[in-house]
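User: two proteins, same treatment. go.

Assistant:
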Amino acid sequence: MRLPKTVPEDEVKCSIDPNSISNTDPAGQFALGYGAYRDEDLATAETAFKKVIALDPKNPLAYHYLGKTMAEQKRYPEAEVIFKMALDNHLPLEQFLKYYDSLIKIQPTGSETYCIDSCFRYGYYDRAEDLLLLAQLYENWHHFNDAEIFYRRLIAADPNKSTGYLGLASLFEKTGMFADAENYLLEYNIRSNYSIDRELHSFYQRVTGLFPENGEWNLKAGNFQYTLARTAGGSLINDIKMTDPLTGETVYKFPQPREPKELTHIQSRIPMYGTKIPDMRPKIKYRPYTDGIYYFQKAALHLPYHETQLAGVYGKTGDLYNLQGLPDSALYFYEKAIELNPEDAGTRNKLVETYTENHLFSPALAQLDSLYRKKELSVDRQLLLAGFYMQDDRTEEAEKLLADAAQMKPVFDSGLTVLHAKLAVLKDKPKDALEYYNRLYRINNHDPGILYNIARIHAKGGNKTEAYKWLNKAISAGFNYTYVLQHDPYLQMVRAGNEWKKMISAVEGIPYIPNESF
């Protein structure tokens, strides 16, 4: 339950005529002080709050607001005493409601009643706010040890709120304890559902700016950006790059929006703002690919030379380039990582994948051979290697790999069956190939690649009727690679006559892309 409030503090517009408030009315005097503080009349506010305390020494609100009034004037010794008294006199909500009801019952009716009621009801606050105000008071007063104590008390009072963690981290950063500041930011980031990625981003920017040649801090900043990049999914479209086909320069793939303006915030009159914290979170344009690469490259320059650690930095740099859409750059860093740490099978697999996606057959085959010799090849990579062996006319080695893979695949696997079919074609075993493709057809009778391969096997065997039948099915299913249809040597015997001309003229061709399923 929370105390019902009328309107926000800065929206309490009503004004109270001091002449209408009795010097013996604590609620009226509080409302008078509350309004004066709002209007920056600190002298009147202080006088009113002191009258409240004289009339009601156990008042649960007056000490808090009197302390804020004094702190704003940098009267820290006085404010310290008053805030501690505010802690002692604060009432839990249920008790405050009872106190409030008893006070309002004796409140005289009049034109000021609504305003008094509104100010008093809205004036209730969480006790944690006094802990924060004391922590901030000590910090502004340069009593850093005391500030740390009260930030820790605030965390203990409400460990699920960011206020204490962010305040303590800021204090540690201010006093040069950067590792401790990072620890508290990371602790809260792990503990809470509320992300403080912006704060961490800004923190690492500041620290690496202070220590540009510190490899460890650049590495931490890079790892933070790397985590953002790996978890952000498709939300980083503004950080995708490409190589300009005309200039060869690396450019952003999509038009870049204007840089956000620096967030401005009207500083409150008092540097301490309590638990009602204004949104001062920095507006960050996330570019974790670009920023992560930058930090990792600086880390690589300034870290003490350690082959395994440096290999890890290069490997992650390669990942970021790949995610950003620059696989050519990724290849360089994966290759460097493997040079430094040849035992890293994970990075070697990423290198294979990147080579393959860029149709770099020979270096991909060399890396797969290395994994195979070391017995570090997964089943999927084993099938990829078998396909490469077939392209390299190493059919016996491919057959062994497929047989081994079949032992590890207890159920039907379409990828394995496709490779068996291709191998049968290469070994000139059309019956075996047709059997494999028929198995695939029974699973998926709309795949144009499967339909096309059945057609070409029939054409190679001289069965023109079946060849045309399956070619028509393939074209109907979407097979429209006219270059393949016109140049595949298996189709030589069917590329004649009106039936072929009619069929080929109906195809809206597209360019041939190698390594498709057919």
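Protein 2:
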Amino acid sequence: MRTHPFQRFRRFHRLILFCGLFAISASCARSQTKEATYDNLEGLKILKPADVEHYPTTPPPKGATILFDGKSTDGFETVDGKKPIAWKLTPEGAMRVTRGGIVSKAKIAEPVRLHVEFRVPYMPKFKGQARGNSGVYLQGRYEVQVLDSYGLDSQDNDCGGIYKVAKPLVNACKAPTIWQAYDIDFWPPVFENGKKVKAARITVRQNGQLIHDDVEIALDNTVSGLGGDPSTPGPLHLQDHGDPVEFRNIWLVPLASVKTSMTRPWIEIRGIYGGMPTLPKGKKLEDFGVNAIWVGSSGVTTELTKSLHDQGVKLFAEFNTMHESSFLKDHPDAAPVGIDGKVSPPPDGWQGVCPTHQGYRQARMTAFRKTLETAPVDGIWLDYHHAHASWEQAVPNMPETCFCSRCLKLFRTSTGIDTGEGQAAEINSRILKDHREAWVRWRCEVFTDWVREFDTIRDEVRPSALLGTFHCPWSLEDFDGAVRNVLNIDLKAQSAYIDVFSIMPYHARFGHATDIGWISRQTAWLGKHLGIKGESGERKRIWPIVQLADWGESVTASEVPEILDLGTRRPSSGVTIFHTGGLNQNPDRLEATGAFYRSIASSSEK
């Protein structure tokens, strides 16, 4: 049907009106953006005085790649590489976002630490994503958000958030118009034969506060990233989101060259396991920042305790619970029995003992009491307190035990379960098939009851001493739930009696030599599982024991700072190293340990 000329005019008129309104709207938005100010904070409620103090600028270290030094934008180009950069240099040595995002000419190919300082304008007429919005994209793909999020309950799209991936642990933002800083440790994803075998990882400190701790980014490109092949190097991308954000002092260094030098007041213990290391002539433990030593219970003496206490060093005893194999020589009935009804051979030489043998239990409780009576130790740690197994290796060896007649009788009595008749192997297999949860629960209760009695003795003999435990570093899902189902460790139940959990994330021994971040991830899992945050005043604590010895894979002195950095991240509130022999074999490791321990000690201890 033919359209009347007046109708065509009305459509044309609406089009002109729409375009005009769009232009007016865009013009208004641009004029409103211009209302952003760096001159005053009128009307803004300041939460504390430090929030309006600029975070100190950090000069680039020797060997850093300097991307922006305040003098020119030569280290950057536009995203398409064709147009000239429109960002403006300020008299104060910053560059202000005006139009179009920019990318560094240098590409990020290896793990790096990026330092970037920024400040956002005060835009009180705007809310949410419209206030001082920009972003810092590692390899152009992984964003740490820049925004005015002062005083908010930060989410993953607020300042410091890894956009749509993780919200910051704390809101570390200063007020708008105030200079802030990100120090970002970034590990690119790892690809083998075109397949991603490790996701990108990131740790972020904002204004010196840890806001992301070794976060894995499963995505290949966060929202608004530049994309591209994630297996290839990429630039640092600074985003234009329409707001006049400012950046200055941008540099990066290879992460391998970074030396940690951050005081960590929440770390109360900086220890060494295995007794006194061999120190250089004229040196003391305090020269290496060490304030705790672990020794085997047989090595505890009054003289050693006094000597260490005189140096301001605590002494902790390690006590073997289920691995005193010499007991079996005169008591063969205490040997663990396997599913086949026969004595289970020691897996890889690790000989366990049946946990229900009353003679063995009494002998260990007597020895435990004697250790506490011998000297005023500061604590006593349970070791090998789990079922007969060899788990301290990449591929664990964990036979199902103990199906001796004594254990089976106690199981039936405690649970009321009829295990039926038949050959031993038949009965034992039936238990695991039909009553596994009841069997596991009962076994866990047996091991937990040992801990309860240890706690009672500690309270009677030396109540000031801590009760700790060295234990498996796995989560409940690892190896089909072996922590509980096979080793019979119920962490939550034991936490009613244990003061300190010393998880054992031996990264090199357990197949994580190239993924040292596994240390802090496992510690973080334990903290979440037990509700431990690593804060002052908590009754329960986590003090991991980390590997600095050559066991499974070698550990170099250059790796020591990163290992200890990961071992001292919250929820950890203390750390010790495995072990003295590894330090004696390689004095450089001792020096590296001392440098790190001293760097994180509070100023009052230095």
